[in-house]
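Archive entry. Fields below.
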Amino acid sequence: MTSRGRCWKFGDNIPTDQIVRSDRAFASIEEMAKYVLENLNPAFARNVQPGDILVAGKHFGQSSGRAIAPKALKATGIAAVVVEYAARLFYRNCFEIGLPLLECPGITDGVSDGDTLSVDMAAGLVRNETTGKEFRAKPIDPFLMGMLAVGGLIPMAAKLAGED
Amino acid sequence: MAKTFAEKVLARAAGLAEVSSGQVVDVYPHLIMSHAASWRCIKTLEKLGTDKLYDVDRIAMVMDHNSPARTAKTADDQKLCRAFAEQKGIKKFYDIDAGIAHVVLIEDGYVRPGMVLIGTDSHTTIYGALGAAGTGVGFSEVTAAWVSGFLWMRVPDSIKVVINGPLARGTTAKDVMLKLIGDLTADGATYCSVEFHGSYLQGLSVSERMTLCNLAMELGCKFAYVPPDAVTRVYLSERGVGPGDYQEIHPDPDATYIRTVVIEGAQLEPQIACPHTVDNVKPIGAVAGKKVDQVFIGSCTNAKYEDLAQAAAILKGHKVAPGVRLIVTPASKKILERIIKEGIYSTFLESGALLTNPGCGACAGDGGSMADGEVTLSTANRNFQGRMGSYSAEIYLGSPLVAAATAIRGVITDPREFLSKEG
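PREDICTED_STRUCTURE:
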């Protein structure tokens, strides 16, 4: 699981209410993706390319545990979310729906919006190709890595059920 | 080795002799709650291609967030849940009349000391009020737990919060928590288990314990916990749940905490969380006089019987300020019945309040939306931008006492102005 793309950088303490606005919570995920993070950077949803990497600060995804927030982010085609650290429920939801997430202390000081980043999920390495700096993420439990590899909890559960 | 509450409760639910913080274990929750989002869990189950459930008696479903339905889509979602509950024989199914899931399940004696509970709601931490471990999870995790009976959990570190009582006049559990969230910030306890200790807890009502554990979520925590005691046991026995029906869990006295925080209740003042984050907390003196358009007394944090009784005691004999909308949404049907019986309902009506049906109401964006630039003083637990209508509207959070005083004056008001010197 290695990817390379443009860095979209956001700030600290972003609540799920701002990833997907409450009044869009009943739209389809594809529709939500068109407006994801709209109040913080309207250009993101318009210009994000598959393989791009979202970087944010501390406590990303706080507030209600709406899984629609990571789902809408995943639907933009981003390859990974790299944060200083995530809110607990957001962390859980990312693995559950199969959106690669790394907690990488120091990342926000080490990258700028528009830099080119590469992310090696298995090694837990983030490399800023624009500056040559490397960052090591907190290790991910092997169980969660396995879940990510098959695309999330439900594909994994279906696979396990099939093996019975 | 000495163990915290979180280590003990997860070891038991995982069937292991002991676990330590940081470990990932498979946990079998005693109760799996899903609320208005239950339809998403049912749709996910269809994708799994199985309809065998691990134990239907561990499933609870409550139609609380948008009830009664306002759109055909919501009505359709609720219809799906109703049919599913009927077909599967889910006895703990609560329809649109019951109230907020957290409050209803506690009132009905389904939450007991030593249990592990998961729910499709971040404020599932509230179950710690009765010495249980409650935490929020995603929709498909609930589905997977319906089928397999278990889910993964990382054993959290623990933070000890010592609250020395009694509290100063005019302050409540809400003020304790807002002070704590202001001091520790919104990520002060991320992924931690928050244990409450201290003399304030002695004799403290279950209602106030619920407020503590509900708001602990706004510190980013995984679990919140009040050690079970005589108050817990009496509360449960009143619901037909005897000591043989549960096993209390208490932390070892020398367990390891990553942090200990002390709150001096005697020095506490009423606290207000200002827009647009819950940790933007100021003592009431700093914001008193701010004009409001709406006051909301509701939510799983502060619409329990005691909360409504406290607010009504201040409102009695007063009118809501001209031009201000006071919306009161009791947390459950049982609470509604009780306030009607005790005349509290009439006190609200006579003051000029609007009483809505029990449920999440305006806190979940269901009614009570604000126009551009408007201001609400709310007893709920969140004030993020866009949560109650317009993006340019502002939400201030305070206790039921502050809400009542503010409704009367039309500006954010220190409730101590309405309390007797002794009270």
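CURATOR_NOTE: Chain B touches chain A at residues 24, 44, 47-50, 73, 120-122, 136-141, 143-144, 147-148, 152, 154, 186-187, 190-191, 220-222, 277, 365, 382, 384-387, 391 (CB under 8 Å).
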